[in-house]
Design a protein that fits this description.
By secondary structure, the protein is α/β, with parallel strands linked by helices. It has helices at about 20-30, 40-55, 75-85, 105-125, 135-145, 160-170, 185-195, 225-235, 240-255, and strands at about 5, 30-40, 60, 90-100, 125-130, 150-155, 170-175, 200. The structure holds nickel (II) ion.
Length: about 260
């Protein structure tokens, strides 16, 4: 079978501290051969780069999550810029807006999002966007700053079909995570059916959002992106191999995964 790309897994999270080797091995056994590891603040971005240096099949993204937007300042932005020079950094992120948990004041979130979006445009890198209950504001910022030429992904997508099609229209990919397996989530399954096939990605967002039927029983990890891909295949009435091939090709072209690859 074609391999699967987990386009979003936080191997830099402390829950993986003693288990990165194991998580990468189990992923490979499940056919998950490439993993994108996004930062959420400066230390986790540095750590994502270190992990990507150690594993041929892991690439890093660097950025500041909306929860940590208060940590954004000129020094942090300069460090993101510097980390982004590393050959295994393939995107800026995650960045964005989270009006569900509101862990940073909204104007502060928006400022950090704008700064990173603009930087990605300047550096020619794609972006990984986190958007929770903030659709209209996220669209306003994107329209204002402009979609980076290299595009990006709205990761762990949680909106409806209309919003997904707007995001696609603006040049972004849609990242489908574990919630597509949740019993009540017909909205996300409708999104999977409607998004153009060349814009779909799959991801775990590990260690969070474990897919069903493992949801209440274990920590999420990259191997389980296979379960997400299986659900996408079922929803689209396609084979797992089709979905693996399609989403891997999409991830590779978006993130330029041939760059900086090593054994
Ligand atoms: Ni994430």
């Amino acid at each position: 079978m074609t391999y699967i790309v987990d386009s979003h897994a936080h191997l830099n999270d402390r829950q993986f501290r003693n288990d990165i080797d194991g998580a990468v091995e189990r992923a490979a056994e499940a056919g998950v051969k490439k993993i994108i590891c996004p930062g959420f603040d400066i230390p986790s971005s540095r750590r994502a780069v270190q992990i990507a240096e150690r594993y041929g099949g892991v690439w890093a993204a660097v950025g500041i999550h909306p929860h940590d937007a208060a940590k954004m300042n000129a020094g942090a932005l300069a460090e993101i810029r510097e980390l982004a020079q590393h050959p295994k950094v393939v995107a800026l992120g995650e960045m964005g807006l989270d009006f569900y948990r509101d862990l940073s004041p909204r104007p502060v979130q928006e400022e950090a999002f704008r700064a990173q979006l603009a930087l990605a445009g300047e550096l020619g890198l794609p972006v990984i966007i986190h958007d929770r209950d903030a659709g209209p504001s996220a669209l306003r910022v994107i329209l204002d700053v402009g979609t980076p030429a290299a595009g990006g992904v709205m990761h762990c997508f949680s909106g409806d079909v209309d919003y997904a099609l707007k995001v696609v229209e603006l040049g972004f990919h849609i990242g489908i995570a574990g919630p597509v397996t949740f019993g009540k989530n017909e909205t996300l399954r409708a999104v999977v059916r409607r998004v153009p096939e060349d814009r779909l990605l799959v991801e775990t967002d590990a260690p969070y959002l474990t897919p069903e039927p493992f949801r209440s029983r274990r920590r999420n990890e990259p191997a389980l992106v296979r379960v997400v891909a299986e659900k996408v295949a079922e929803v689209k009435n396609r084979t797992l191999d089709d979905i693996a091939q399609m989403t891997s090709a999409n991830a590779e072209s978006l993130f330029g995964l041939d760059r900086g690859s090593s054994p």
